[in-house]
Design brief:
Layout (H helix, E strand, L loop, with lengths): L7 H5 L2 H8 L17 H25 L3 H20 L2 H8 L8 H19 L4 H14 L1 H13 L3 H25 L5 H20 L1
Helix pairs in contact: 2-8, 3-4, 6-7, 6-10, 8-9, 9-10
Length: about 210
């Protein structure tokens, strides 16, 4: 693993408290009764997404500790896990389409498309570690959307539009920081250019719809 990214797995651990805060009021606070519109499909999505986050954390830690064989085995498991993750978005999409706010379909649809693009590229470049790792970082950044998107309105009292655009700003800062880091170390930063382009398109469409 590249020296600058040796602690990547530990950084990904931040997704756990962010996810907890983001879904505290709408999911975790309802344990164990789950009375407010929590269907079995939401539980399934939560479980699969949680497993995926654990995979994101574990994989770079395995590389860091030279557990390459186990890293590859878990990588192969992701060939099944990732499609299940994307499929788990579908019930939510159907519910939104049939609701009074069908434009909110943008969020799960955009997340699914972004995840699919970044994961597919990561697998395509699985034998080129530098590109593989950067596209997997791209998949991790997608998870900031559902977490920060809820922390802003539900915990900080910000409007959804302000929260969303602050989220884009944070994502751009992260990606620009990674580009600067790679340029400084003479590494291939081009994957981040594609990732940031996808997010710019994401922001443009969001502001057109909302």
């Amino acid at each position: 693993m590249e020296k600058a990214y040796k602690n990547l797995g530990y950084i990904f651990i931040l997704l756990i408290p962010l996810t907890f805060l983001g879904f505290l009021k709408t999911y975790f606070n309802q344990i164990p009764t789950f009375k407010e519109n929590i269907t079995p499909y939401i539980h399934i999505h939560a479980i699969i997404a949680s497993i995926w986050i654990l995979v994101l954390i574990t994989q770079p830690l395995l590389i860091r500790n030279r557990k390459n064989k186990l890293h590859k085995k878990i990588g192969k498991i992701s060939y099944v896990l990732f499609p299940l993750l994307i499929l788990s978005f579908i019930p939510q999409m159907i519910r939104i389409i049939n609701s009074d706010t069908p434009h909110f379909l943008f969020f799960p649809l955009a997340d699914s498309i972004s995840l699919t693009i970044f994961y597919s590229l990561a697998i395509y470049y699985r034998k080129t570690l530098s590109k593989h790792m950067r596209y997997m970082i791209g998949t991790a950044i997608v998870f900031l959307g559902p977490t920060i998107g809820r922390i802003g309105p539900l915990i900080l009292g910000l409007s959804e539009n302000v929260t969303q655009n602050l989220q884009y700003g944070l994502i751009y800062l992260i990606l620009m920081g990674l580009i600067v880091l790679d340029r400084k170390n003479g590494k291939d930063y081009k994957p981040y250019l594609l990732i940031i382009t996808i997010w710019i398109i994401h922001q443009i469409i969001f502001n057109m719809i909302f």
